[in-house]
Amino acid sequence: MLFMNKLLKKILECDHKVIAGCLVAAFILSLIPVLYLSGYVHATGDDYGYGARTHAAWLESRSLWQTLKAAAATSEYYWYGWQGTWFTIFLMALQPEVFSSGGYWIVPWLMLGLNIFATSLLLHYLMVKRMRLPSATWLCADMLLLLSMIQFMPSTKSGIFWYNGAAHYIVPYFLALLAVYSFFRFEDTQKKCFLFLACVCMFCLGGSSYLAPLFALIVLVYLLMFRSRKEKHLFWLVLPGAIELTGLCVSFLSPGNKKRGGEEFGFHWMLAVRTILCCFKEGVLTVIQYVREYPLIFLCLFVAAVLIFEAFCRQENPVRFPKPVLFVGLMFCLYCAMFAPGIYAGVEVSGGVPNTIFQIFLLTLLADIVYVAGWAAGRCRQSGKRIEVIRIRCAALPFLALGLVLLYGQKGTLKSSTFYECYEYIASGQADDYKAQMEERLAILLDPSQKEAELPAMNSDQGPLMHMEVMEDPEEWTNSVVRQFYQKDRVVRVPRQ
Residue 344 has what DSSP assignment? Predict the structure, then answer.
């Protein structure tokens, strides 16, 4: 009992710096099995299809310039034949195995790095520089957000381990957050370097998967609506907005879109109205789904809310948060808008779409938490109440305990985490089997004397990793792209002896 009292006292008096240190340690530990698998990943499926021309150019010339020209040719080919996202197709054509058969290990490090950097950069600027919160509070919120975002990502394949999927969704997410960061930096400093950075990001977003460009554009519209009257220099941000819209028009006009979406694909007013209504319906249903499937993320963000409210209560020179209901409504609209491209297109979406929707949901939810916490702290100051940290934590403790009890009753939540999925894949021995069999295949595919490659069959279900299996029929799509990439006459799957 004495030990429990001492532990409770330490929790109630714990400094934000100590909490931040513990969360950073937990975050790093959570990534160990994920990054361990970087030694096991390999290109698959679309990686070969989009990388065939660039791989051939690299083998023939060993020239980066010639390879980039081949990537541009690939983007043009697919613009006419499949889809209009010219920038991300250019990136897809540069998958690591284009340059080295052992280079794919960089994919998890790169995609996690882009995700962590962009999220942390934007949060740091908004929370520390603009809202004057302590760095330790930002770090606590940042770690809790990233833990939720990475550990409960709907598709680890398209978000971490598969270059093709991650280049199409994680890279645009990174560019969108970097663009938003540039908007705020330009608003505060009027420096043209941030306007230039915004233009570069928005140019690239113009040829990317549609969710991230839509996110950046809506944030820009919000900023111009509510801030440009007081700060006239913000009208310069119309330029990056126009650049992105021009790029998106090029993407929309792609002949490949009709080949992929059918002859009826195009703009229709009634479909646009229906899409807007369906977005709100899907937004509500998806939040309910998150509550059921990922209750731990709400527990993490509850802790973030308590810490942020504490920090605002301590502020001597507080920032004003005047219209919380309006802000929460705008953030909800921003989140719901992420469903629009998939609903409008009416086609089956890839795993990267739920990932981006999930990421934007968490970002907008944290934005709501920060804004409402700042507003609530301001109301407390206006009423003359002085709220001590220990009183805040005493009030939050029963809710936290209830959350932990409910979480214990849903042990499946932890088993659905990226950490557990990767750990189980490694501990079961399946990862080592996959690595051995892929190395066996690569030895055949990289052998120039074997023009007809007979690949021993293997399991297509590879847990957190993406693997598109070749088939017995050499005319199947996967067989065809593998054959093109490795310049074989024939690729076929044969029974494993």
Answer: H
